Amino acid sequence: MLLSTQCFIHRGQMQECNPDAVSDPFTKSQQEDLKHIFQVLEEKIITFVKNELKRFKMMLTPDYQEHFESKEEDESEAREGALKMAMHFLRNMKLKDLADKLQQKTYKLFYLIVGGLKNMIMLFFSYIGELFVQTELKRNLKKKYQSVFEGIPTQGCSALLEKIYTEVYITEGGIGKVNEEHEVRQIESRSKRPAGQETSIRCSDIFKLLPGEDEPIRSVVTKGVAGIGKTVSVQKFILDWAEGKENKDIHFIFPLLFRELNLMREKQLSLMDLLHHFFTEIKQLTFPSQGKYKVLFIFDGLDECRLQLDFQKNESLTDVTEVTSLDVLLTNVIKGNLLPSALLWITSRPAAANQIPPECVDRVTEVQGFNDPQKEEYFRKRISDQNLASEVISHIKLSRSLHIMCHIPVFCWIAATVLGVILGSSGVGQIPKTLTEMYTYFLIFQTKQRSLKFENVHDLEPQWNQEVILGLGKLAYEQLEKGNLIFYEEDLKECGIDVREAAVCSGICSQIFREESGLYQGKVFCFVHLSVQEYLAALYVFLMMAVEGKDIISRHQTPGTSIQHWKQTVSRWSPVIKKSMTILHKNAVDKA
């Protein structure tokens, strides 16, 4: 009811209401609330203005340092108003210079904030770019290393590394004098050592500190005889990193094979040029000299290096963009002049490991190959028929020489190839019990690959086999004299070997192609193991004497330890070659 007509009963009488005399209780409460609100508002405004005036006062002092201040977004307009009000009253007080100075200071702080935001945005996009590059590198490395070819890269038959990988035994040990003993004899000597004399280390932990160590590990040299598992260990290390399983603190891994670097030994380039050549996905990245990224360089196969690597005379280099020879680049990376924060992992056969100056090496490890349980694990993974795998294992245990050689993973592959066929077929004849017999059967099986892969070659096969075996024997002989375990197309042509035919002879001569597109692409060849190369060299010496009456060894009178050592090696093989040739001839006739 409206106040103008509102009435009430007082002492039983109707009286007209006086609007001036009556107050609405709700309106009165609102007025009290409004009064309280404005009291609080006045306090807040005064406090805010006082604080802003204090801030302005500080900004006008000579020793004021600009810095970022955290503030709510909705305070910005209030601060802007307070600033305008302060400058207004300063100018009214005839203090224009002070007002102008206050305005300049606040604008400078504004630009500082804007610049900081810009830098934050740039850092964010830089991080996204680095993450993308790292992801691409990991994807490409995983694609390259997730599959493994055991001895026959050209045959097209690969297996996932995760499914067949067997951990090899790796120990930590210092660099001693060069062991002049033959590598097969080194394997035999090592097998006689009592267990527990050496510190074992997992492949993925080679850069991690052992108990009692406090100095960080920058450079590691891993040595081991040919075929012992160095390269496959590198492959597993890279694959685990690419899949995010191990060494997650490393940003980038760059594996570089010396057999591929040899193809670029005449080039002039910078470290960045070298990386961009092999890893095109990183072209948008720059590598400062100090620690922005944790980088690992892996140099695999130092013993295959055909560069001089003169650590004493090569000039020092610190600029990753400076162009020089590949030899100078590598020595400066190894010495820590280029990218000194980068980690370094070098693999090598023992005799070549001493090329690296001791002061450049923080840790030395040695791949010992398979121990006895690991041998059995390998054969059971490699041979799907477990009964056949048990037969192979039992036969190998009966022969001391074969059992010792199975410390070498590559020899395990050869043994699985040969014994798997012989023991798995009916009408078994003579089973190989010696290293020479094993390689003779291996030679038979691999030369027969041609008749399995191509039609209408049976009539030409004996002549083809003789030509290829003699050519490969000559190659093995001449390259062994030079101390080379790897060779290139020109080396094959000098021995009369057709590159295409060499690819057909799958297991005897492995052909390695670089899959990534780059400025240079070439072919690198090697025998599956040093002892296979020695066997073929000795076979060549025997055949040249038996067929053509030529005594090749006596024609070489060059003095020197390496030549004499090599002659002793060939002589060691020679007494059993004649027996092996009888086996070879008989099987060739039976299967022709």
SS-based class? alpha/beta
Cα gyration radius (Å) = 40 Å
The major β-sheet equals: 7 strands, mixed
Q: What's the CATH C level of the largest domain?
A: Alpha Beta
Separation, N- and C-terminal Cα atoms? 124 Å
CATH homologous superfamily assignment of the largest domain: P-loop containing nucleotide triphosphate hydrolases
Poorly predicted segments: 1-23, 67-74, 152-156, 453-464, 509-521, 557-563, 587-592
Instruction: Kindly state the number of beta strands.
Output: 16
Helix content: 40-55%
| Helical run tally | 21
Mass-distribution shape: elongated
Query: How many structural domains in the coordinates?
Result: 3
CATH architecture of the largest domain: 3-Layer(aba) Sandwich
Which secondary structure elements does this structure contain, and how are they paired or packed?
Blueprint lengths: L6 E4 L2 E4 L8 H35 L16 H17 L3 H50 L1 E2 L10 E2 H4 L4 E4 L10 H9 L7 E2 L18 E5 L6 H13 L9 E6 H4 L6 E2 L1 H8 L16 E6 L23 E2 H10 L7 E6 L1 H4 L9 E7 L2 H11 L3 H13 L1 H6 L3 H16 L10 H13 L1 H5 L7 H22 L3 E3 H6 L4 H6 L4 E5 L9 E5 L2 H19 L12 H31 L1
Parallel strand pairs: 7-12, 7-13, 8-10, 10-12
Antiparallel strand pairs: 1-2, 3-4, 5-6, 5-13, 9-11, 14-16, 15-16
Helix pairs in contact: 1-2, 2-3, 3-6, 11-12, 11-14, 12-14, 14-15, 15-21, 17-20, 20-21
